[in-house]
Design brief:
The protein is mainly beta and 279 residues long. The chain folds into two domains: 57 residues, no CATH class; 199 residues, Glutamate synthase, alpha subunit, C-terminal domain (Pectate Lyase C-like, 3 Solenoid). It is 9% helix and 26% strand. It is built from four helices and 17 strands. The strands form three sheets. Strands 5-1-6-8-9-10-11-12-13-14-17-16-15 form a 13-stranded mixed sheet. A two-stranded parallel sheet has the order 2-7. A hairpin with a 5-residue loop joins strand 3 and strand 4.
Length: 279
């Protein structure tokens, strides 16, 4: 194993926010400097505030100068992994908590297990890959009603929760499994592709952007909020399939998807002119 390793010393007894440590991490730091990076303050049930640093939670080692960081151990209670990640490769050897890849700028993040809610919230660039399932609001806003993900790519190999692509502004989200309700909620732009079944209320209040699903996995959306389905052949889909397949050899299957589809425009109740494509 090359690069850096952060190995969890003991399972956290409550959620630990790694955002500050992730934001402060740099490949040029020494092991001692990384160990002193602060973690978010933790408030105990008795009201006391505990201040900890990376070295309290992780055993930090550096094998080489390669820009690779691997998190080992139980990480399900660690939130904010990959916050503002901007270069190199970050790998979580297992599952992770909420807010993975929040505001990611560049680089690659891979989680070998599943993740909680808020994956890629406010993301700006780079690729995040989740080999398991993901929770609600993939690519959504970081706080309140602001815009969601603004660039980059998200690839979930398992299933996803509700509100995939919530308020998505730019970028591409691919879910190989099924997703919950309100996929594409209030989307502003960007592309969401679901290969499995899609829950109810697809594209609710969608303004612009593209939602893509398989014909055998979801019914046409209801009129008059959406235009009647129209069979079209979109050559631009061939370019999209190639772009997605270029992320990884495991996505080669997308090249076989047809470019002929049923197209609907909506959500008209929100003045939307986005599109829903059933391939």
């Amino acid at each position: 194993m090359s690069g850096w390793t952060w190995e969890v010393r003991a399972t956290a007894d409550q959620v630990v926010d790694l955002s500050a440590a992730m934001k402060g991490f740099d490949w040029s730091l020494s092991v001692a400097e990384v160990e002193r990076l602060p973690l978010a303050e933790m408030r105990r049930p008795n009201g006391t505030v505990e201040r900890r640093v990376v070295g309290d939670l992780f055993r930090v080692t550096r094998q080489s100068d390669d820009p690779q960081l691997v998190l080992l151990g139980t990480c399900e209670r660690l939130s904010g992994i990959g916050h503002r990640w901007s270069s190199g490769q970050l790998t979580v050897d297992g599952s992770a908590g909420s807010a993975v890849a929040r505001e990611q700028v560049a680089g690659t993040i891979r989680v070998l297990g599943s993740v909680g809610d808020g994956l890629a919230a406010g993301k700006r660039g780079g690729l995040v890959r989740v080999d398991g399932d993901a929770g609600a609001s993939i690519g959504g806003p970081t706080i309140g009603r602001g815009p969601g993900m603004r660039g980059g790519a998200v690839w979930v190999r398992g299933n996803a929760g509700d509100r995939v692509g919530e308020r998505l502004r730019r970028g591409t989200i691919v879910v190989e499994g099924h997703c919950g309700s309100e996929c594409g909620l209030q989307m502003i732009a960007g592309t969401v592709l679901i290969a499995g079944t899609v829950g109810p209320h697809v594209g609710r209040l969608l303004r612009r952007g593209t939602l893509i699903a398989r014909r055998d996995m979801v019914r046409p959306l209801a009129e008059p909020a959406w235009s009647p389905p129209q069979v079209v052949e979109l050559l631009v889909l061939r370019l999209l399939w190639r772009a997605i397949a270029s992320w990884n050899a495991s996505l080669a299957w997308i090249r076989e998807w047809p470019i002929q589809c049923e197209r609907q425009i909506g959500d008209r109740t929100a003045g939307g002119i986005g599109e829903f494509l059933r391939t």
